[in-house]
Amino acid sequence: MTAPFRTAREIRDGVSSGTLSASQVCRDALDRISAENPSLNAFLHVDEQGALARAAEIDARHRDLGPLPLLGVPVAVKDNICTTAMPTTAASRILEGYRPPYDATVVERLNAAGAVIVGKTNCDEFAMGSSTENSAYGVTRNPWDRTRIPGGSSGGSAVAVAAGLVPLALGSDTGGSIRQPAALCGVTGLKPTYGRVPRYGLLAFASSLDQIGPIAGTVEDAAIALAVIAGHEPRDATSVAAPAPDLSTMENASLAGVRVGVPRALLAEGVEPEVLKAVESALDVLAAQGAVLHTIDLPHSRHGIAAYYLIATAEASSNLARYDGVRYGVRAAGAATVASMYEGTRGAGFGAEVKRRIMLGTYVLSAGYYDAYYLKAQQVRTLISRDYEAAFEQVDVIALPTSPTGAFPLGERTADPVLMYLADVFTVGANLAGVPAVTVPCGFTGGNLPVGLQLTARTMDEGTLLCAAAAYQRATDWHTRVPPRPSSS
Amino acid sequence: MSSALAPEEVERIARLARLSLSSDERDLFARQLTGILQYAEQLREVDTSGVAPTSHPLALTSPLREDEPRPSLPRADALRAAPDTDPAAGLFKVPRVLGA
Questions:
Q1: Quick one: average pLDDT of A311-319?
Q2: Based on CB atoms within 10 Å of each CB, which residue in A84, A251, A435, B99 is the most buried?
Q3: With 50 as the cut, is the pLDDT of residue A2 above it?
Q4: Average of pLDDT values for A303-315?
C-alpha cells in the first residue's frame, strides 16, 4: 500500500516542534500542484509568491506564534470565498479577475490559525452543480479516473485533497456540494450545522441553505479545521452564538452504544448495487464496533430534491440579482440604456446552468405561481425537518450513502438537468433541515471508484457526529487509500 | 401547476430576471424548465394543510447593535472593482437611466 499523504495535524505538529519546515511543506505542495494541475484543473488561482512568503514568515517566527492549530498547513479555498490576495470568481465569467476588497471571515480565521493559503479551487459556477462541469474555466477531473467527474460543486477542493496537493481545503455546501465530491473522490467532507460557520465573504447562492465546511484526508483534520472556522461572527446575521462542539473526546471515542438510524426505505431503489454493498459493509463495521442499528423512516425525504430545487433556485434568483455589471465584474460593452446593459451583461456573463436556475427561481416566485411552487416547497421543507427531529428522538446519528452512484463519466448528465439534480438525493435533506452531516470513505465500486458513507446528527451536535466518524475511521483504512499515479509517458 | 412553458412565457421570465437569451437558449430552457417543473409536480401528493412554511432552518431573531458610527469600506476600495467609475466624484457610472 502506498503511504497516505501527510495530514494537516502531522504538518502542524512538525512545524510547531521545528522538525518540519513550513517553507519546504509549501514548496512540496506547490510542486505537486505544478505537476498535477494541468491535467486535474483543481486550482483556478495559485498564489505561489504569497504562500512562500507566508511560509517563510512562519518558519522565522514559529516559536513566537505559539501552538497554532494549522501552523504551516497548506490550505486550498473554494473560489466562491472572498480572498483579497487572489481573484474570487466563483468559476464565473461575470466575475473574471474580480479581486474582493475584503477577506471572508473563514479566510481571516485560517490565517490567524497559521494556515498557508496556497490557492483557489475550481467549482461549478456560483456553486450550482453536482459535477464541476459548470465551471466557466474548464472541468475538473477525478484523480481516481480522469475520464470521470469529481462531483460538485466543490470538485476542485475535493480533488486538491484526494490527489495530495494539499491536506485541507474549504468548500461550501448548499445541497451536498462538500459531501458529494468528497465521497466521489474518496476523502472526508463535513457540512456543519447551518449557522455554525460564518458566511461573511461567501458569495451567496441560497441563503437559507449555504454552509462553509472542510474537506480533508481524515475526520481528525476536518475537526481541527472546524474548530478554526466555527464561531459567532457579528457580520453574518445568520451566525449562531453556540458553544463550540466538544471534540476533546474524539481521539478515544467509541461507537459502543451509539444508536445509528438507517432509513431502509430510501435505499430500496436508485442506489447502485456496488454503492449499496459498500455502505452495508460500513454498517456492519459500525455494528461490530458496538453501534446499535435501528431502521428508521424519513417519509418525506423522497420529495427532498423537488423541494430543494424550488427553494434553492428561488433564493438564487434573488441573490444573483447583484451581478449587474455596475459595482464589480465584467460589463457587456455597447449598451445604450441601463436595462440593456443589465440584460447583456448577465446574458453574456452567466453560464447555462446559472441562467437555468435564475429562470426557474424567478418563475416560482412570480405572481400566480408562488403558492403552488415556492410556498408548497417550504411546507414540505417543514415536514422533512420534522422527520429528522422525530428520527433523532430514537437515534444519535443517521447513516446513508452520500451519493447513489460512483463518479459518473464527464458529459454523461450535462444535457439532463433532472438527472444531474438526482445526484444530490441523499444530501439535500441535511441542508433543508439545517443539521450537520459528514461523509467518510467506506469502500470502492468494482471500477475502483470511491464510495462515501454519510452520517448525519442533531443540530449543533458535531461532537457526536465527528466522534462516530472518527471511530469508524479508526476501525477502517479506506481513508488511507490514494488514487493511482498518472502513468508518466 | 403543469403544462409546458411556451417560449413567450420563457421570454417573460427572462425579462423579469434581466437576462438576454439567444433563441436557442429560449427553446432549450422552455423544454428543460418544463421537465423540472413536471418533476416538481410530485409535491402535490404531499398533504401540507395546516403546515407552516420553513423559510429558514433556525429560529433567528434579527440581532441588534448600538447605532454608533464606525469605519466601513472606504469609497475608493468599493469603486476599485467596478467596470466604469468616476473616481474623482466617487461614483459608479452606468448608461443613461432616464429618457432612454
A1: 98
A2: A435
A3: no
A4: 98
The answer to whether position A351 is within a domain reads no
Whole-number Å distance between alpha carbons of A246 and A249: 7
The answer to whether residue A320 is domain-embedded is no
- Does the pTM surpass 0.95? The reply is yes
Q: Check pLDDT > 80 for residue B3.
A: no
Tell me the HSE value of A486 on the side-chain side, using a 13 A CA sphere: 17
pLDDT band at A295 (very low <50, low <70, confident <90, very high): very high
Distance CA A466, CA A455 (A): 9
CA-CA-CA-CA torsion sign (A223, B56, A299, A403): negative
Interface test with B, best of A363, A378, A421, A424 (most B CBs within 10 A): A363
- Closest chain B CA to residue A334: B95
Q: How confident is the model at residue A247 (pLDDT cuts 50, 70, 90)?
A: confident
Q: Residue A406 — pLDDT band, cuts 50, 70, 90? A: very high
Residue A393: pLDDT over 80:
yes
Can you give the CATH number for the domain in which A58 is found? 3.90.1300.10
- Note the ipTM here: 0.95
Whole-angstrom distance, CA of residue A378 vs CA of residue B8: 28
Which percentage of chain A shows pLDDT scores above 70?
A: 99
Within a domain: A291: no
Cα-flanking dihedrals φ and ψ of residue A310, to 5°? -75, -45
A373 CB neighbours in chain B (<8 A) are 1, 37, 40, 43
Q: Strand, coil or helix: what is A433?
A: helix
Contact A407, A449 (CB under 8 A): yes
The CA-atom distances, in angstroms, between A110 and each of A83, B32, B91 are 11, 41, 34
pLDDT at residue number B1: 47
Residues of B (10-69) whose Cβ lies below 8 Å from A: 10, 13-14, 16-21, 25, 28-29, 32-33, 35-37, 39-40, 42-44, 46, 48, 51-58, 60, 62-63, 65
Domain that residue A452 falls in:
8-264+387-480
Judge whether residue A489 has pLDDT over 80.
no
Alpha helices in A178-325 (DSSP H): 179-185, 219-229, 273-288, 304-319
Provide the grid cell at B30. 422552455
User: Quick check: B98 contacting A, CB < 8 Å?
Assistant: no
Interface residue A368 vs chain B (CB under 8 A): no
| Domain residue ranges of chain B, discontinuous segments joined by + | 7-45
Shortest alpha-carbon distance between residue A225 and chain B (Å): 23
Structurally, how many domains does chain A consist of?
1
Q: Considering the domain boundaries, does residue A316 fall inside one?
A: no
pLDDT of residue B100: 54
Class of domain B7-45: mainly alpha
